[in-house]
Design goal:
heterodimer, A: alpha/beta, Rossmann fold, 8-stranded mixed beta sheet, 7-stranded mixed beta sheet, 18 helices, 20% strand, B: Rossmann fold
Chain lengths: 576, 295
Amino acid sequence: MTSVNVRIAGANGDGVESSGAMLVKVAAKNGMHAFAYRGFQSIIRGGHVWNQVRISDEKLYSHGDGIDILVALNQDSVRNQQSHLNKNAAIIYDPSKINVEGVRSDVKLIKIPLLDIAVQVSGDPIMRNVVAIGAVLKMIGINIDVFNEIVKDMFTRKGEKVVNDNIKAAVTGYNYSGVEKLFEIHGDSKKRYYLDGNTALAIGAYASGCKFYAAYPMTPASGILHWFAAHENKGVLYKQTEDELAAINMTIGAASTGVRSMCGTSGGGFSLMVEALGMAGMLEVPIVVVNSQRTGPSTGLPTKTEQGDLLFVMHASQGEFPRIVIAPGSVEESFTLTSEAFNLADRYQCPVIILMDLYISEHVETIDGFDFDKVIIDRGKIAEKSDGRFKRYLFTEDGVSPRAFPGTPGMEFVAPSDEHDEYGDLVSDALSGIDEYVEVRVKMQNKRMRKIDTMLKNESVFVPKVENEKADYFFVTFGSTVGPVKEAIQILNKSGSNFGLIQFDYIMPLNAGKTEQILANKKLIDVECNFTGQLAHVIKANTGIDINNRILKYDGEAFTGKEIADKAASIIANSK
Amino acid sequence: MEAQENKPKQGYTSGIKPIWCPGCGDFGVQAALLKAFTALGLDRSKIVIVSGIGCSSSMPHPFSTYGIHSLHGRLIPVATGAKLANHELTVIGTGGDGDGYGIGGGHLVHAARRNINITYVIMNNETYGLTTGQTSPTALMGHKTKSTPFGSIESPINPMALAISSGATYVARGFSGDPMQLAELVKNGISHKGFSLIDVFSPCVTFNHDNTYDWFRSRVYKLESENHDPSNLEKALGKAFEDSTTDYKRIPTGLFYKVDRPTYEDLDIALKDGPLAKQPLPTKAQLSEIMAENA
């Protein structure tokens, strides 16, 4: 595998974001693979931001280590990024603006008067990032014609001048003297899609018939709301709410009418949703709730990643009720697991929580596509008619009672957050403590909780997935950390080790017996982006297996493959 | 509340008894809702009564319509979600003053500005009944309760002014002691296209011995008796403050304000082809189109 890591760094407003997007598109159209991740701040103008685009001839699982080409759009970029430069890396910079004194001697300095060229070709200094992108294309051996096509796609609606200015700026950078090919990436003939985890999740929801999404803006979940809002003319309704309390309660109201409904937020907003999460459990209304985690506690680092909410979402809300917790481990899984989430919600009439995080929500990568033929829609048990008064909460062997939707004559019922009998009539208030209603309470709680047994019996997914069964060592992980772990395995196994992966994707409920069988007698290393090793805790609670080898990170940045590989190597060295 | 075994339902009633004390004002609201449903000839399978938590929130149970007895303060978003998902339903919110003006007050102003076509009936007894008598957001200054033994020192919420200034398009006040007027207000609120708030003085006979039926009877008067023009925003706001500015000597009831403005459902592009609940799954062509946005 050959890969090159291009990092564009500057201030907000310098075109860092759009430069990265251009590079990803070039790679996708050129039969290459790309993985882009950005470092950004809670500031709208200024500050220090970067967008790293890794381009390769093979599928990528992480944003990679270090920088091969740095496009430095301001002085801060050189100062903040030089420690990340790989050996023999290159810096593209404008000598009239930036001083590179003190940069390591192995680093190639590519001086281009970015600003002068931008002003010359377009009259607009903002184009300087495009000049730099032109140079990058030359350095990684991509034909400039591909870029021209992309510019047409991106800017035709802004007029011919914008298209031509972009092309002129890029071509000038491409042909600038001293800019040479440094890397060789061979693409195949396949054109790929490029999208982030939030978009994949939204498309997964859309394909499975989700028509209602409610949210209050919050990083890093906002990408989902942007998607739904942009597609309100395509059969989905996005409701921006006054707060996350409203978001989840509206979702419950919408789902009660039979419409597949979802809400999404980050940990802070999820905290506000907690009471209603329990109501969804009590009313037995199927809803899907996304929590895209960021670095906590509290406001934490709003633009940085973490996996610190696992135990929280597993236990949030008072009392006990069935719920399902799912953590996609890739952009592709953000699609597939979300479409399955709606089936599980409908089949078991309970809340399903999709645990994302900033890294998986916001990194863009190229993918081959989604298999829409595999999206199966199962609405679960729906009552068509009722002899006599409808028992919405009918006691059944599997715990699942057929639902009915408002508008259906003869099935009227009240769904109450109070404890209730089979009809939905309350057994709280005036009846609580009276013997026969004590019995109803127990039977009803048993009915609800029985759904967990049914899930474990009927669904095969509630066990971890194993890759490379015969490995000597296994990384145990979940969510966005799966990608970097896969890359670590590639690195380690290439140098003669034999590592495998145990991925927890459907985390709750967990088939404890089968999980124990899978984990028993294996050498395990737990990898998580949090302080306490929350997945390891879940594993211990379910199986009694204690994973003492842990690689934990909570600095706000995502793991890289090399980082995990190095740490694993030293764990093994120390254990010998 | 008594669970009823398999009894056939008659009309709009389920036969289930609410938890209210004898003499509770909420019985008057129940009667008004029943009268309004009957007068409008609504299909009971298309009615959803959404309540929160509190004495008055047991309102859905005596009815044989659909209902959601939700969380304290959250009936508005639950009702909004149901309406947005299927706007052919008649969605009615029923709750108390603590629910609507206290813990759920934030939702009220947004429902009003959205002008979503929901009718919200707030049974206002100026007290917290189910929690055995604490102060409420509408309690008058000086009102003594278990939580304000030295008298309330907070100015009460002005529901009419709040609703009007937030953008509600049908704003009325009724009194449980006047069931005829109340039924008419509820009926017209349901018929009105847009967000309707009907605040109802619904005396708590157990915990509020200040604001009793007699107290209200000697103070309320009907706006229509003074030929109030409900289309006049300024006059409506003036009337909304008449109670506090007269030191509660004159309390107007009736329709304060009514205006026609497009509803949220009228304006949301997602609903132009009918209710979400009836819209088909995306076609293969639509899915390819969606993917093409990312290529």
